[in-house]
Design a protein that fits this description.
Layout (H helix, E strand, L loop, with lengths): L6 H8 L3 E6 L15 H10 L31 H12 L1 E6 L11 H20 L5 E6 L5 H11 L5 E7 L12 H10 L2 E5 L17 H6 L1 H14 L2 H4 L5 E4 L6 H15 L10 H8 E4 L14 H5 L3 H4 E2 L22 H16 L3
Parallel strand pairs: 1-2, 2-3, 3-4, 4-5, 5-6, 6-7, 7-8
Helix pairs in contact: 1-3, 4-5, 5-6
Length: 362
């Protein structure tokens, strides 16, 4: 006799399948990675603690959803089984990309940072990927030290459950700089994407105008950094040098992309002699090589104005990836994230087809 499925699970399977490009698997504490640390680095962690860049320690007093506390008592987003039920089952998420937000990649001691990243990736594989086949992960690596980052990429490359290399939104230098090129070369070689997630700090003021006073400035500001990173990657010729590379922008919004491309093209016409490595307009590189997660979704006062983006930038319908930002307080429910007047064809692309094609989930 067949066993009846729970009502919630049956309801989830009635919904269209989703690829969620930004799901956060949280550590309860650093104790979660201790079983995966070499004894030397475990002692180092206990003795000296973490030591990273200052400037990104704004209190995340609204960090997680009030209703996502798992029965296990662990913090929101830190229980794989509960995430599977509350997010994947409820919303029929066929594939979820995990992006752990830890300070491990930006520790100032390079070897210690590399050891922490290795342990974090081992933790992801053991505690998340082994338990839930619908989950995929980002490789955490010490991206400021390309040789160590490449070693971690090579260590993970044979595990197809890792689908991209994770950068913070505010690295020490713009992402087009040649110090990062060995990472891009390795990512391209192994078919991995490169993802830049909002926030973090690279030793500099976290806005283009200096240090902010309030949390709201930090919360709204990531788009500045992502614009700088994209302009740098285009101008430095990253996409010419690595034509198989694809960049994913997570939690930086996307409404600014169109105006950025306009200004890039206008400036290029004036200064293209400075960057002869480019063979096309900057906007063409952005439209081909860059993908943008929907969270935080742009919310014009007139919801129908959302469609103006697709009218003026037709490539957007193929470059937007649905992202819930689970289990943070400002997450986007699939039921309300995309305006209802967006045509079904575009909705299918955003919710499933673009992510499935990009990550090879098809």
């Amino acid at each position: 006799m067949a066993v009846a499925q729970p009502v919630e699970e049956r309801a989830g399977k009635l919904r269209p399948a989703i690829v969620d490009a930004d799901v956060h698997n949280e550590l309860e504490s650093n104790r979660d990675i201790e079983p995966f640390l070499d004894p030397h680095w475990l002692e180092h962690l206990h003795t000296y603690g973490l030591h990273g860049y200052s400037g990104s320690g704004y209190p995340r007093f609204l960090n997680r959803r009030n209703d996502s506390k798992p029965p296990s008592g662990r913090p929101e987003g830190s229980d794989c089984s509960f995430t599977s039920v509350q997010l994947l089952d409820e919303w029929n998420v066929a594939h979820a990309v995990l992006n752990p937000l830890t300070p491990f990649a930006t520790q100032l001691d390079p070897e210690f940072s590399a050891a922490l990243c290795t342990a974090c990736n081992d933790w992801q594989a053991h505690e998340w990927l082994d338990r839930e086949p619908r989950m995929h992960a980002s490789i955490i690596c010490p991206f400021e030290h390309a040789d160590l980052a490449v070693a971690e990429i090579e260590r993970r490359a044979s595990d197809g459950r890792f689908v991209q290399v994770q950068f913070s939104g505010r690295p020490a230098e713009p992402m087009g700089r040649r110090k990062y090129w060995p990472i891009y070369e390795a990512a391209e070689h192994f078919g991995l994407k490169v993802m830049s997630h909002a926030f973090g700090a690279g030793g500099h003021p976290i806005t283009g105008a200096g240090w902010p006073s309030f949390y709201i400035e930090d919360h709204v500001g990531p788009a500045q950094s992502m614009q700088g990173n994209i302009i740098s990657m285009v101008g430095e010729g990253v996409f010419e040098r690595f034509p198989g590379l694809r960049l994913v922008s997570a939690e930086n919004g996307f409404g600014w992309v169109l105006s950025m491309m306009w200004r890039m093209d206008a400036s290029y016409r004036l200064f293209k002699g400075e960057i002869p490595r480019l063979r096309r307009l900057p906007s063409e590189y952005v439209s081909e090589f860059c993908y943008f997660c929907t969270q935080p979704i742009e919310e014009p006062h007139r919801r129908r104005d959302f469609m103006a983006l697709f009218e003026q930038w037709p490539a957007a319908e193929d470059r937007l990836l649905f992202a819930s930002d689970y289990a943070h307080w400002d997450w986007d429910s699939p039921a309300t994230a995309i305006p209802h007047d967006v045509p079904d064809e575009i909705r299918r692309k955003i919710f499933f087809e673009n992510g499935a094609r990009l990550y090879g989930f098809e």
